[in-house]
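A.,

Following up on our hallway conversation. Structure tokens first:
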């Protein structure tokens, strides 16, 4: 058995094995009820990194009673992004024109309490060989699909041989240009990134990784080594972060995380406003919190370390990027903008005010398209 398999097999999956939990029988009983609704998994590597009950890593993986309170809130649902409504075949989401998300398993190295797919993760019999076969067949039959994101669950929990087979099948589809792997493994079970896994992955370029990091303390020496191994075989590495109350909802923590990622050749890609998922409300923040963090990042650290801040629109509208407002006034003659220090600047466009032959440049204070990308 390899080290990562041992760490996974030694996961805490029951309330009785959780450290730092109050001894009261009544509390533990209620917590067990939470675990029956939403599985628990903390692999032994990740557990070793947790220093105590206030640790930001602890808050991401240890169940709390609030998860059941959320059931009474009407605006929280089990599938807030309506993924099930965009599945032409089971466990494949086709929402955007040229790309799909293919779930290749529904197990993870840890079970995150805030997960958008809380309804699926850790339950048996959801992703099967047959759903996977149908998903790959769907991609093969749709030439407009040029990009697939392998997700789940975590694709890297699939054994090497099976992963090799799946990647090989996908790569054999002529119109599929890009394969992406969405994974939390490098940051939570770094021993999984083995030489053998790397020798498989590097056969399937262009292959991209969308990883998931929420706190700078996740970047341990083991994790840094795993990222280096992946970067060294030419995989472009990106990271997504979920904005979480009590974990990373302050600018200093986010800045440290983004800078540490970049130092490890991982490009910060998204900060997500937490989805409106049943059982996760206690970990959500206001949207303003995210905008404030973006304001504190932009200009205060290199642009490469500034991700997009997005809301995945409830009901399946897709990702919408948000920015703190930097446009004070926008007329046909000029645009008045403010920079990261709060200083005001005027950009003249007087000579171009009739530059609207195609009708697309109707300058109004509402038209702020030019300012929608971070510096
Ligand atoms: S690793 Fe990703 S898919 Fe798995 S529980 Fe965490 S957020 Fe959900």
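Then the amino acids I'd put at each of the 375 positions:
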């Amino acid at each position: 058995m390899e080290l990562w398999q041992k760490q996974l097999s030694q996961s805490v999956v029951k309330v009785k094995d959780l450290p730092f939990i109050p001894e009261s029988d009544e509390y533990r009983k209620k917590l067990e009820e939470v675990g029956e609704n939403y599985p628990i998994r903390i692999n032994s590597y990740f557990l070793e990194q947790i220093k105590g009950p206030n640790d930001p890593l602890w808050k991401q993986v240890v169940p709390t009673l609030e998860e059941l309170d959320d059931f009474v809130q009407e605006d929280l649902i089990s599938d807030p992004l309506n993924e099930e409504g965009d599945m032409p075949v089971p466990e494949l989401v086709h929402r955007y024109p040229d790309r799909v998300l293919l779930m290749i398993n529904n197990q993870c190295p840890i079970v995150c309490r805030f997960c958008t797919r809380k309804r699926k993760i850790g339950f048996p019999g959801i992703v099967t060989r047959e759903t996977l076969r149908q998903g790959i067949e769907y991609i093969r039959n749709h030439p407009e699909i040029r990009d697939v994101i392998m997700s789940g669950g975590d694709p890297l929990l699939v054994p090497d041989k099976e992963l090799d087979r799946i990647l090989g099948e996908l790569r054999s589809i002529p119109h599929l240009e890009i394969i992406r792997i969405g994974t939390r493994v490098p940051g939570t079970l770094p021993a999984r990134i083995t030489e053998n896994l790397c020798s498989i992955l590097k056969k399937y370029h262009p292959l991209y990784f969308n990883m998931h990091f929420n706190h700078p303390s996740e970047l341990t020496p083991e994790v840094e080594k795993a990222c280096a191994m992946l970067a060294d075989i030419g995989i472009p590495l990106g990271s997504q972060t979920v904005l979480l109350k009590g974990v990373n909802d302050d600018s200093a923590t986010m800045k440290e995380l983004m800078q540490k990622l970049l130092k490890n050749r991982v490009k910060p890609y998204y900060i997500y406003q937490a989805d409106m998922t049943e059982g996760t409300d206690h970990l959500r923040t206001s949207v303003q919190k995210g905008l404030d963090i973006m304001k504190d990042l932009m200009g205060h650290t290199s642009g490469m370390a500034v991700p997009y801040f997005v809301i995945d629109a409830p009901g399946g509208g897709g990702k919408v990027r948000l920015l703190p407002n930097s446009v004070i006034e926008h007329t046909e003659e000029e645009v008045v903008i403010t920079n990261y220090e709060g200083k005001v600047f005027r950009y003249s466009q007087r000579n171009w005010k009739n530059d609207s032959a195609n009708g697309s440049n109707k300058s109004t204070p509402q038209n702020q398209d030019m300012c929608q990308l971070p510096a």
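The radius of gyration is 22 Å. Curious whether your intuition agrees with the design.

B.
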